[in-house]
């Protein structure tokens, strides 16, 4: 169980700080929820405490692990299906894992693809979402602002 002040990642939403843990009655059921404040977009997310492991909530990565992520952003792009539909599904599966290396791979590949030929609207939205997830974790690991974190990603790719 996490405590107030812990920095965690919620897959598909990004990293945040647990602001409080409170009981709420929703649909007639009283449960404990983590109230997670995300650094990007000033958003708050409620995560049921009892489901947190099942949905893949994890602690943020260390500075050492972040170096590995930045190195992965510099790596060559991985092979992706030419069919955008299949590519979209594969990338979505990677994002759902909550694994920061998978998220970094999606960001790297889509940024590079966008530079060569413009992405479809769906893939642009996916890139924006994936980049937000990665940004939020870098912000919390390094304790920096969003613009600085964005520059780190852009320089690495």
Taken from the alpha-carbon principal axes, the silhouette is globular
Element order: H for helix, E for strand = EEEEEHHHHH
Low-confidence stretches: none
Spatial separation of the terminal alpha carbons: 35 Å
Summarize model confidence as the mean pLDDT.
94
**CATH class membership of the largest domain:** Mainly Alpha
Q: What is the share of helical residues?
A: 40-55%
The strand line-up of the biggest sheet is 4-3-2-1-5
Q: Can you tag this structure with a few keywords?
A:
alpha+beta, five-stranded antiparallel sheet, 5 strands
What is this structure's SSE topology?
Elements: E1 7-10, E2 14-26, E3 29-38, E4 43-48, E5 58-59, H1 63-74, H2 84-97, H3 100-116, H4 121-142, H5 146-156
Antiparallel strand pairs: 1-2, 1-5, 2-3, 3-4
Helix pairs in contact: 1-3, 2-4, 3-4, 4-5
Explain how this protein is built:
Helix content is 48%, strand content 22%. The chain has 5 helices and 5 strands, in the order βββββααααα. It has 2 domains: 7-59, Beta Barrel (Thrombin, subunit H), CATH 2.40.10.170; 63-156, Up-down Bundle (Methane Monooxygenase Hydroxylase, Chain G, domain 1). With 157 residues, it is of the alpha+beta class. A 5-stranded antiparallel sheet has the order 4-3-2-1-5. The radius of gyration is 16 Å and the shape is globular. The mean pLDDT is 94.
